[in-house]
Design goal:
Shape of chain A: globular
CATH class of the largest domain in chain A: Alpha Beta
Radius of gyration of chain A: 17 Å
Structural class of chain A: alpha+beta
Strand content of chain B: 15-25%
Number of domains of chain A: 2
CATH superfamily of one domain in chain B: CO dehydrogenase flavoprotein, C-terminal domain
Helix content of chain B: 25-40%
Structural class of chain B: alpha+beta
Bound molecules: flavin-adenine dinucleotide, iron/sulfur cluster, FE2/S2 (inorganic) cluster
Strand content of chain A: 15-25%
Largest sheet of chain A: 5 strands, mixed
CATH topology of one domain in chain B: Enolase-like, domain 1
Order of helices and strands of chain A: EEEHEEEHHHH
Radius of gyration of chain B: 20 Å
Distance between the termini of chain B: 57 Å
CATH topology of the largest domain in chain A: Ubiquitin-like (UB roll)
Oligomer: heterodimer
Order of helices and strands of chain B: EHEHEEEHHHHHHEEHEEEEEHHH
Strand order of the largest sheet of chain A: 3-2-6-4-5
Distance between the termini of chain A: 31 Å
Number of helices of chain A: 5
CATH class of one domain in chain B: Alpha Beta
CATH superfamily of the largest domain in chain A: Beta-grasp domain
Largest interface: A-B, 41 and 36 residues
Helix content of chain A: 25-40%
CATH architecture of the largest domain in chain A: Roll
């Protein structure tokens, strides 16, 4: 579907159509509202966190059209017609995503503030075959997610563990 | 964040017409520089023109062998593009050394060229900054200038150009295609960014309303080795203190052709013709690289906190040249 043309005056509220976690959602926002605030304040999906609001911490990471991005630096109006996955959409049919399961099992957090963003980055990188599977490549690919508590060691273990589960999962299915 | 009008455009003509020559209007691509700076009240557009729907998302090899990159190709797509990895590994390396996965997924090729300095005084709307507000002074000159430039500086501004991607493009050589209210034109990449001089607010040669549509890379140097080295305060997700992008081709142990560009130390993506001259027709040996490093940094002007960048850049140059030569030798070995 071609997204419809958007034209908004400053201060004017416009309608934005999104697919959030598979559901069609309609928002009424002004053009200066970023996706992060639209998700949290309009759709009440507060799993996505605001850390720095400037692209520096990764707490706001969501998937847009399957790619991990910083939702604090993307306008909601720029997402017209796009598919967005937030941390609330990671679990399927009441079952945790392998990344969520692994974060639990490995205690891959302390305060938990960075965790939704960490898990969204991890889920994206495990689906991306351009990123190598070794620890150094995973660390590099995850470096856009800062953990103030320094839970990096367990985060890395969790990601690599989730990889094993996901690999055996696809093998099982085929 | 301040309010602004927002318009989408479906093709280049529509985008350019919608923008007009109004300097209060801004194109938005990835938004990673623009929205960051609007939030800080450093950029104050009254209207945005979204160029993400323009048909500028392709990478294409032209008949003459050059590679044409659409303005909105993301940094991630470009870094992993098979033609870029095979023929322009320096560009791929430089892109992957920049920012984070998420930012590279958003950032576009033209947006990266147009990114603004990370000078903290430029980013602080209450500080004196000639680049942001002409004639207001420069708080960096006698302030905390550890991250600032040593090459291409003026008494008006010493801010570094922060891009990694642009360092590779400066070394490779490229042409920008521009389209604006007065029509289409082309400009060499290395003529696009300006030195601060006495007009640091004039950062590039773009005329009001002009859109970058394509970036076309020169044909690669045959048999050249490539290496991009980025030195920074932490291992990833940090801007360069000094970086060096090197391309070297070798024949019988002698350097046939060399290109060297520097990042993190200069006010624009810095092609060092001095270093290239020092390398030409010389043996591919560390002593040659050291001479080139000396030549590259001979005109460097330090300020209170950034003198360390001069020896740091020299070492970066030597290491990048050494690795590029190794790469060239590996490439030439019969496999
Ligand atoms: C936390 C952080 C860390 C970063 N680290 C690095 C790093 O290590 N290395 C690095 O190189 N970069 C780094 N960056 C910068 C990043 O690469 C740039 O922000 C990005 O490339 C800008 O591209 P964009 O598409 O998002 O541009 P936008 O924000 O959309 O636009 C930037 C500017 O370019 C103009 N513009 C955009 N497209 C066009 C066009 N086609 N024609 C004319 N004008 C246009 C806009 O009007 C605006 O003025 C970092 C950024 C952040 C926020
Ligand atoms: S160095 Fe340049 S950008 Fe920084 S405060 Fe001075 S004039 Fe502004
Ligand atoms: S809140 Fe978006 S990166 Fe920090
Ligand atoms: S768990 Fe506290 S910031 Fe990461």
């Amino acid at each position: 579907m071609e997204p419809s043309e958007t034209s908004a005056q400053a201060d004017e509220t416009v309608t934005v159509n999104l697919f959030v976690n598979g559901e069609p959602r309609q928002l009424q926002v002004t053009s200066n509202v970023v996706l992060l605030d639209a998700l949290r304040d309009e759709l009440h999906l507060t799993g996505t966190k605001k850390g720095c609001d400037h692209g520096q911490c990764g707490a706001c990471t969501v998937h847009v059209e399957g790619k991990a991005i910083n939702s604090c630096l993307r306008l909601a109006v720029m997402c017209e017609g796009q598919h967005i996955t937030t941390v609330e959409g990671l679990a399927r049919n009441g079952e945790l995503h392998p990344v969520q399961r692994a974060f639990l099992d490995h205690d891959a957090y302390q305060c938990g503030y960075c965790t939704p963003g960490q898990m969204m980055s991890a889920a994206a990188l495990l689906e991306d075959d351009r990123i190598a599977a070794d620890d150094a490549s995973v660390r590099e690919a995850m470096s856009g997610n800062i953990c103030r508590c320094g839970a990096y060691k367990n985060i890395l273990e969790a990601v690599q563990d989730a990889r094993q589960v996901m690999v055996s999962g696809t093998e099982g299915r085929s | 964040m301040r309010t602004f009008a927002y318009r989408t455009a479906d093709d280049v003509t529509q985008a350019v017409t919608t923008h007009g020559a109004d300097d209060q209007v801004a194109y938005v691509a990835g938004g990673t520089t623009l929205l960051d700076l609007v939030k800080l009240d450093v950029m104050r557009p009254t209207q945005l023109v979204d160029i993400n729907r323009l048909p500028l998302g392709e990478v294409e090899t032209l008949d003459d062998g050059r590679l044409r990159i659409g303005a909105t190709v993301t940094n991630t797509e470009l870094a992993h593009h098979p033609e870029v990895k095979a023929r322009y590994p320096l560009l791929s390396q430089a892109l992957l050394a920049g920012a984070s996965t998420q930012l590279r997924n958003m950032a576009t090729t033209a947006g990266n060229i147009m990114q603004r300095t990370r000078c903290p005084y430029y980013r602080d709307a209450s500080a004196a900054c000639n680049r942001r507000e002409p004639g207001s002074g420069c708080d960096a000159m006698h302030g905390i200038n550890r991250m600032h430039a040593v090459l291409g500086v003026s008494d008006q501004c010493i801010a570094t150009h922060p891009s990694d991607m642009c360092i590779a493009m400066a070394a490779i050589g490229a042409t920008l295609t521009l389209e604006g209210p007065d029509g289409k034109r082309e400009i060499a990449f290395n003529d696009f960014h300006r030195l601060p001089g006495d007009q640091p607010e004039k950062e590039h040669e773009l005329r009001p309303g002009e859109l970058i549509t394509y970036i076309t890379l020169d044909t690669p140097i045959e048999g050249a080795g490539a290496y991009y080295l980025k030195l920074r305060d932490r291992a990833s997700y940090e801007f360069a203190l000094a970086s060096a992008g090197a391309l070297v081709s070798i024949q019988d142990g002698v350097i046939h052709e060399a290109r060297l560009a520097l990042g993190g130390v200069a006010t624009k993506p810095w092609r060092s013709h001095e270093a290239e001259q020092a390398l030409h027709n010389q043996p591919a040996a560390v002593s040659t690289f050291e001479m080139a490093a000396e030549a590259a940094m001979q005109d460097a002007v330090p300020h209170e906190h950034n003198a360390f960048k001069i020896p740091l850049a020299r070492q970066a140059i030597v290491r990048a040249l050494r690795e590029a030569c190794k790469d060239a030798e590996n490439a030439n070995e019969p496999r």
